[in-house]
């Protein structure tokens, strides 16, 4: 794979991109099976499933960055907080 030699592909990096790819495939399958309808939840705007996925991923990234910037605790705790945020956002966002 000479085209990808410039990237330092570690197992966590590959797992992250694989997880995002699986989420996108799953969301596409859901959209084809059950078309989404906009709904208003915790956020002050109507969102679709895809909107909530994007907002959840963006929020999880900011939680991780904030965790790294403002605390010395292990990142696993930040990952748990990000997972809780993402779950709440997808369910009630």
What does this structure look like?
With 93 residues, the protein is mainly α. The protein has helices spanning 11-33, 49-70, 75-92; strands spanning 39-40, 46-47. Strands 1-2 form a two-stranded antiparallel sheet. Strand 1 (39-40) and strand 2 form a beta hairpin. Helix 2 (49-70) runs antiparallel to helix 3. The longest helix has 23 residues, at 11-33.
Summed up:
The chain has 93 residues and is mainly alpha-helical. 68% of the residues lie in helices and 4% in strands.
Number of helices: 3
Integer tally of domains:
2
Sum up the overall morphology in one term: flat
Largest sheet, described in full? 2 strands, antiparallel
> Taking all residues together, what is the mean pLDDT?
89
End-to-end gap: 41 Å
Strand order of the largest sheet: 1-2
Uncertain regions spanning at least 5 consecutive residues: none
- Helix and strand content put the structural class at mainly alpha
Element order: H for helix, E for strand: HEEHH
Beta-strand residue fraction: under 5%
Radius of gyration: 16 Å
Give the helix proportion (percent range). 55-70%
Beta strand count: 2
Task: Using brief descriptors, characterize the structure shown.
mainly alpha; flat; 3 helices; 93 residues; 2 domains; two-stranded antiparallel sheet
